[in-house]
Each structure stands twice: as structure tokens, then as C-alpha cells.
Amino acid sequence: MITRYLEKINFVPRVAEKVSGSIPRTYLTTEEKQIILRMHDSCFYCNANALSYYMDHVVPFNFIYQTEIFNIVPACINCNSKKSDRLPTQEIFDRVKDRNNKLRLRNDYTKDWYQKLYESCLTFYQGNRLPFSPSPYRSLSLICLIFNRVTSWFLAPRSQKRVRAALLRI
Ligand SMILES: [Zn+2]
Q1: What three-state secondary structure class fits 55?
Q2: How far is the CA of 44 from the centre of ligand 1 (A)?
Q3: Cα of 79 to ligand 1 centre, how many Å?
Q4: Structural domain boundaries of the chain?
Q5: pTM over the 0.85 mark
Q6: What CA–CA distance (Å, rounded) separates 25 from 62?
Q7: What is the whole-number distance in angstroms between the Cα of residue 74 and the centre of ligand 1?
Q8: Where are the beta strands (DSSP E) in the chain?
Q9: How far apart are CA 100 and CA 12, in angstroms?
Q10: What are the pLDDT digits (tens) for 92-108?
Q11: Rounded CA separation 11/119 (Å)
């Protein structure tokens, strides 16, 4: 299948099928999922620990229309929804390529080919959307969330009093 990609002009995979809309979504096998989860014990993007992980397509599925183990990393719910249908930054993509060195992949997979696929996706699919990287302000937003919870807890009795007073007035 990879050689088929290579045959396509400009590395845009499965053009004909995309146009006709006849590509069903494919999934990793249970064994492949276990391989991924054994290799990573946290979110590939932000390192957060989660109870379960999404099997994220690094190069978006809607561009490559394949689910291949070399293109899958575990992602927490935050990263998965934030990344959505985008490429990650080149820096993250380099980490994926390094990770793939540890996977036993078919002979027709090469780092260069995968990099070309990334670049092609960036040119023909990503548009002007910025590549994804996990927010460096994650801890800051967590502090804000805690602050909001604490202040609303302190304000709660007063607002309850207001509700009670309004009820008495009726
Ligand atoms: Zn994450």
C-alpha cells in the first residue's frame, strides 16, 4: 500500500478514492494497539497520564485514509480534541519518526518517505492552520480552573442567601 502512495503525484494518497468518497475508515488490530500501549505509558504529545488513550493519526486520517501503526500514537482526550484534523509540529513529528525506529515495520516504510508525506500534507491539506503542539500553558489553565472553583465555593453561600431572600419576597 505504501508503494501505491509513492506512485501518486505529489504524495497525495488515494486521490481517486477520495474523490469518489468510497474509503471506509480502518482501525488498528488489537495486537497493534497493544504494541502501541506497551511502548507508551502516557500521552505522546503532552505526557499526561490518562485512564484510556485515543489512537491518534499523526498525519490526519482524512489525508492518508489509512490506519497504519507507524502513523498512530496514544493521545489524551485534551490533545486528541485539540489536535483534531491537523499535523503536529515538525519537532513532534521527528519524535514520531524516532519512535518508529523501534517498531518492526514493513520494508517499504522509510523515514524519508514519511517525512515527504508530512510535507505533502502540510502543503496540500493543512492550509493556513498552525501545526499542533500541546499548550505550554496547561499548568496555568489548571491553576485558573482551581482558582475559579475556590472563589465560586466562597461566593456560594452569599448567592444562596440571595436566592432565599428572593424566594421570601414572592
Ligand atoms: Zn495529551
Answers
A1: strand
A2: 7
A3: 4
A4: 23-141
A5: no
A6: 9
A7: 8
A8: 54-57, 72-75
A9: 21
A10: 999 999 999 999 887 88
A11: 9
